[in-house]
Structure to design on (164 residues):
């Protein structure tokens, strides 16, 4: 009986320690860079890649500010909307990501350097590219039966008061 208890305890210990090893955490350098800025949508630089795949922010979303918050309980991506709301326009970044919400919880995949929003399609993720005070989120749909071209969303960072 004692051996059975010890064996069961060892298996339970291994299972719980493995699950903690596989938890997805955002690398500290990425966390600091994302949290240090308030991100505003911008029009991308011309002539870099296929222009049709670059999101051009509409007037209603140009004054929105996005922030990232990291915590053990959940990572959050937040929109602070300007006075002009985008309304029913479903082709804005604001509408695609947030709908009527102000926050979206997400997980980070270190291997793919991407974020995946909770309650989104299992195939949908956003590759994160950081270059100083510029952020590019590239939508990826890995559904093998649906072709969806990646769309690039560009943001300019402004240091938050806490990090100046």
């Amino acid at each position: 009986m004692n051996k059975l208890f010890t064996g069961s305890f060892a298996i339970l210990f291994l299972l719980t320690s493995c699950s903690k090893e596989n938890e997805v955490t955002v690398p500290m350098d990425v966390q600091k860079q994302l949290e240090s800025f308030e991100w505003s949508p911008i029009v991308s630089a011309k002539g870099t890649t296929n222009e049709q795949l670059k999101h051009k922010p509409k007037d209603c979303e140009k004054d929105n500010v996005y922030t990232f918050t990291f915590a053990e309980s959940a990572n959050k991506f937040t929109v602070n909307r300007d006075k002009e709301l985008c309304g029913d326009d479903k082709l804005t970044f604001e509408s695609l990501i947030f709908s009527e919400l102000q926050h979206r919880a997400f997980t980070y995949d270190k291997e793919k350097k991407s974020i995946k929003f909770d309650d989104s399609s299992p195939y949908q993720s956003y590759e994160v590219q950081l270059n100083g005070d510029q952020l590019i989120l590239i939508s990826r749909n890995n559904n093998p039966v649906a072709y969806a071209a990646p769309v690039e969303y560009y943001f300019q960072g402004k240091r938050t008061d806490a990090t100046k």
